[in-house]
Amino acid sequence: MPTLAINKKANFDYELLEKYEAGLVLFGHEVKAVREGQISLKGSYISPRTKNGKTEFYLIGCQISPYKKAGPLPDYNPYRERKLLLNKEEISRLIGKKQVEGLTLVPLKIYTNHSFLKLEFALAKGKKKYDKRETIKKRDVERNLRSLTKRR
């Protein structure tokens, strides 16, 4: 499963509670652009929308640059909302968990599973500033230990 895009700040900014997998509804030229790595998950999030009594989840703020070989795409919006493909049980579970205060849905990575593009996202809780400082300290200590063990 080759990974095509990773949200590097997700682990730093959020405490990840549960991970989920979903398919994406994309145009053909968007799929080709994603496979070439022309995608950015930076600053993106997942939000529910209700239409005709049905709740669906959308990926918002994800940038997919236009595919270079597709020719001119005059009305293409690289930041458009993209629908996620989830089953009813997952949707109802996510709606229930999202109603808990302080939880959000954060995209983690986009990868291929056979010939399909999949999005891995997590139910997450935002970290406080002191939690982030603690993460930085742990990373520095681990880096120092690795460098000390390499020298010997």
Please explain how this structure is put together.
The protein is an alpha+beta fold and 152 residues long. It has 4 helices and 9 strands; from the N terminus they run E-H-E-H-E-E-E-E-E-H-E-E-H. It has helices spanning 10-13, 28-35, 88-98, 129-151; strands at residues 3-6, 14-24, 39-40, 45-51, 54-60, 63-64, 82-85, 103-113, 116-126. Strands 1-8-9-2-7-5-4 form a 7-stranded antiparallel β-sheet. A two-stranded antiparallel ribbon has the order 3-6. A hairpin with a 2-residue loop joins strand 4 (45-51) and strand 5 (54-60). The longest helix has 23 residues, at 129-151. The radius of gyration is 18 Å and the shape is globular. The chain starts with a strand and ends with a helix.
Instruction: Outline the biggest β-sheet.
Output: 7 strands, antiparallel
H/E series: EHEHEEEEEHEEH
Strand content: 35-45%
Number of helices: 4
Q: Uncertain spans, ≥5 residues at pLDDT below 50? A: none
Ends distance: 36 Å
3D shape:
globular
Averaging pLDDT over every residue, what do you get? 88
Q: What Rg, in angstroms, do the CA atoms define? A: 18 Å
Which strand order spans the largest sheet, edge to edge or round the barrel?
A: 1-8-9-2-7-5-4
Residue share in helix: 25-40%
Number-wise, the strands total 9
Structural class: alpha+beta
